[in-house]
Amino acid sequence: MKRSTYQNKYQILRYILIFLILAILVVVLGSRKNFGPLQYAQLSLDGLRGGAIYALIAMGFVIVFNVTGIINFAQGAFVTLGAMFTVTFYNLNAPLPKSLHLLLSVIAAILVTTCIGVLVERLTIYPARKSSPLTLIIITVGVFITIQGLSLLVWGADAYVFPAFTTLEMSDRVFRWLGMVIKAQSFWIWGIMVLVLVCIAYFFNFTLLGRAMRACAVNRLGARLVGISPGRMSLVSFGIAAAVGAIGGIVVAPIIRPSYDMGLSLGLKGFVAAIMGGLVSTPGAVLGGLLLGFLENVAAGVTKAGLKDIFAFILLILTLLFRPQGLLGVRKTTVETDGAH
Amino acid sequence: MTGKQDSPVLLSIKDVSKVFGGLMALNRVSFDVHSGEIVALIGPNGAGKTTLFNVITNFHPLDGGEILFGGKPLNGLRPDQIAQGGIVRTFQNLRIFHNMTVLENAMVGMHLQGASGIVSAALRLPAAREEEKRFHDIAYQYLEMVGIENRAHDLASSLPFGQQRLLEIGRALAANPRLLLLDEPAAGLTRAETEALDELICSLQDQGLTILLVEHDMELVMNIADRVVVLHYGTKIATGTPEEVQANPDVIGAYLGADWQQDKWLEWMLEDSNPNAEKADA
Amino acid sequence: MNAIPRFNSNRNAIGWFAMTAVIALLGWVETVQPMGVDFADLTNGIVTMDTMVRVAILTIVLVGLNLLMGYAGQVSLGHAALYGLGAYASSILCVRSGDLLGVPAWVLGSWWWPWLVMLIGMAFAGALAYLVGRPILRLQGHYLAMATLGLGIMIYILFRENLGFQGQHITGTFDGIPGVPRLRIGNFEIWPISRYYFFAWIAALGAIAFGLNVISSRTGRALRAIHDSEVAAQAMGVDVASYKVRIFAVSAILASAAGSIYAHFQTTVSPAPFSFVGSLELVVMAAVGGLSSIWGAPFGVAVILIIKEILRSRLRVVFSGASGEHEVIFYGILLVLIMIFMPEGVTVGAVRRWRLWQSRKREQVLSPAQPQAGVPR
Do A337 and B50 touch (CB under 8 A)? Predict the structure, then answer.
């Protein structure tokens, strides 16, 4: 009580100190490449764009984890499926104006991916719902690699092209602002991230189904006692996570040429973002995602571009070691109490 | 069951407090346990008894006060170091090793008495083999002490509940403690099993072991405890011999509700049992 | 103290000697080729000496992984990276250390240098695991899984990137490092493959013996106790954190040794086998063989590798034009099925089911069913 508030102040100071040290380090490294404020701004902006993608994927992780307690490794697979299905549908011949065609492809892809998500839950998670966390992790990993392998089979190993939303061509419209280059797709990404966040928040806070899912997350047994079926909640959560993951894959596809293995790296980074945010709430996921995108891009920018993934994992390890509850999470302690359970 | 107030203090709980979030689970609790005594810790559910055990063995760090064992403070030691120092506990909701045999459970209890590590085990050095044999034989004796040696090679999870309780005690004994903390050892046991437990604990005391136990079974407590400490909402409200505590109005109030004195019928009931009759053998 | 049941681990010893005899026999077939039959003919070309050597090498990794995951209960989704550390240590120090570190040519050319390098690799892997393990193994469940996954990928990226050091390359991108020498003792070269078979299997059998001995010891019990209940283990005086780190280091040392043996077998070391998929393959093998069974190590490896061979040779027709990664579909499905239906592994699961079926058959014969209180081994 008294001790903890003091600790809180001390901790915040510590974080500020760490942030300052890192900032100095970045500036020092950047000066070797003659970086000025423009380059940093550009790196930050691009980082925030990547971060928004991670945020979308992280939201999927958080939703499933909150309702079922499972870390769904297959989340990355939904990202891949979203993008690839859209490509397939868009490449079908249809007498439609391009924008409508794209929109319908997107919607169809999201629906198909959601169905696949539900299927995955029923076929693999539900039968194993009583297993240990390790078993469930391995199962979701198995699902991921199965879907990735099937994607390889269906779409081959090549990268596809995907039209940018604004121009409906391969090349995107580019804005210039204060010397920085911003692709139009970036605005789509940020906008859709905010839209999804708002929709999810509305769903969980103001709809009966959403509140039922939250109840399940807080107290599974209690939820059952009032008539909520955890199995059904699990199914819905997987469906929503699949949809959100698919959206993530679709909005990023114009920038990263979609291929069968795009989900691995994106999924992992989405997971890192979720951990950094604290695995407790979708706003936390968004926060984690943006922070991750920003930090990894700046770090890679001042050192070597190929090391971007390493920085992401360094952040993961550091988070797990020093603040496993993430930015917004609460440290959990297991308490063994007298009799009263 | 003789009073041992004059033997040296083995465990000293001084002003111990523990807070969980907004809840004060232990509030400046103080008492001593003398060498060779059996002290019972009682109190209604949620009074903080298991929390006290957790704090003594440092599964939860304390938020105030001090615990001295043999005169030396315990703070900062890891739970396994505390076990090494001679304090061994059992658990309220049994934590036996389900996937190991009964004998292997007891052999884990003997862990601190061995020294072989990975290398000597891998190379099957004679010292390691000797140690294995010794462990095997001595662990078996501990199983005999608690009476479950006939199930030695069965999987621990296949034992009935009462025998699992005995296994947990046997395993704790194998660790050769100076102070044994028993957390509700009689919970879920039948009458016969509880009587057997009674005899076991008394025989342990005869062998010189000091025991602190948490228990709800009042008959067991009255029979075997030298002294009783009563906790209520994390505070110590009474201490004394079982008879003294039984008659203590605060204790009765804690169990029955603070307005018990207003209840005439209750008063009549308690008069009947006459707690102020002859004192037990001191 | 009338009749203390005699304590013995003879069952394990019998199994080990039996296995040694079988391996020796198979090796004899290949070297002597009685009646013109060589090893591959025994299985009509499906299982070759090459496969057997790979089984031996991966068995060494799996023994370590089983000790870590099955007995101590700690997850590792990045073990292939530790395997890769040994491989890269051997290849870099045997091939490039002249340029990089100025190791004189007479050392590089000597017969004992690769062996010394193998030991250096093992020491390095063990030290790394020890250092990294302390903080990481405090994590539970999925946090630990993710940490090991992250570490594994980080190390893999280091293998894959073209890292330079004063103008010289250390690791060699996707193509890897060629030219790793064969192992020699004095002038006796451990090649052709029949000789390497014996060498690899001596190492593998040694690893199995190591695992079996550790399990039935005080250390093994401590590990299993940690797996069942960390809290209770601590209450009995087991220094949980220390044991976890030590077994992690042991598994790293074993993986590194296996990696070195692999490097001298393959003679070109590229990053591909040490990626996340590689770690996954190891987990699948462990799951198939049985996480809590040292015997599961060779069994799991053998099953997966043989199935891989069959898929590659027979099903290429189906997956024509594929870039060869289709076995992952199979791995994924297999993993999911095993984890749902037989999470304790195929060996233990099959034995258990067989025993259950047998006891049910017996129940039909006897009238009152006798409760079975046996100990599954």
Answer: yes
Nearest to A1 among B19, B60, B216 (CB): B19
Nearest CB to A128: which of C145, C151, C339? Answer: C339
* Number of domains into which chain A is organized: 1
Residues of B with CB under 8 A from a CB of A: 19-20, 22, 45-51, 54, 59-60, 63, 91-93, 216
Distance CA C138, CA C148 (A): 12
CATH code for position A235? 1.10.3470
Report if residue A15 sits inside a domain: no
Q: Is A221 within the bounds of a domain? A: yes
Q: Evaluate whether residue A300 is within a structural domain.
A: yes
Residue pLDDT, tens place only, B234-274 = 888 888 888 888 888 888 777 766 665 566 666 666 665 55
What does the block give as tokens for C90? 């051997």
Residue C218 to residue B116, Cβ atoms within 8 A: yes
Task: Kindly state whether residue A48 falls inside one of the protein's structural domains.
Answer: yes
Read off the pLDDT of residues A72-108 as tens digits, 9 standing for 90 and up.
Answer: 989 999 999 999 999 998 888 878 888 888 889 999 9
User: Rounded CA gap, C1 and C52, in Å?
Assistant: 49
Q: Residue A98 sits in which domain range?
A: 37-322
Q: A113 vs A105, A247, B185, B193, CA distance in Å? A: 12, 10, 54, 59
Q: Are B42 and B215 in contact (CB under 8 A)?
A: yes
Q: Could A307 and C161 be called an inter-chain contact, meaning their C-beta atoms sit closer than 8 Å? A: yes
- B93 pLDDT more than 90: no
Kindly report the average pLDDT of chain B as a whole number.
85
Residue B234, CB half-sphere, CA atoms under 13 Å: how many? 15
pLDDT score at A30: 79
What is the total residue count of chain C? 377
- Compare CB distances from B89 to C219, C224, C235 and report the shortest one's residue: C235
Which ipTM value was assigned to this complex? Answer: 0.84
Neighbours of B234 (CB within 10 A): 23
* Beta carbons of B142 and B173 less than 8 angstroms apart: yes
Q: Is A12 on the interface with C (CB under 8 A)?
A: no
Burial of C4 (0-12, 13-18, 19+ CB in 10 A): middle
In this complex, do A338 and B47 lie within 8 Å of one another by their Cβ atoms? yes
pTM to 2 decimal places = 0.83
Q: Å from B44 to nearest chain A CA? A: 9
Residues of chain A found within 8 Å of residue B49, distances taken between Cβ atoms: 338
pLDDT tops 70 at residue B275: no
Q: Which of B20, B91, B93 sits opposite A335 (nearest CB)?
A: B20
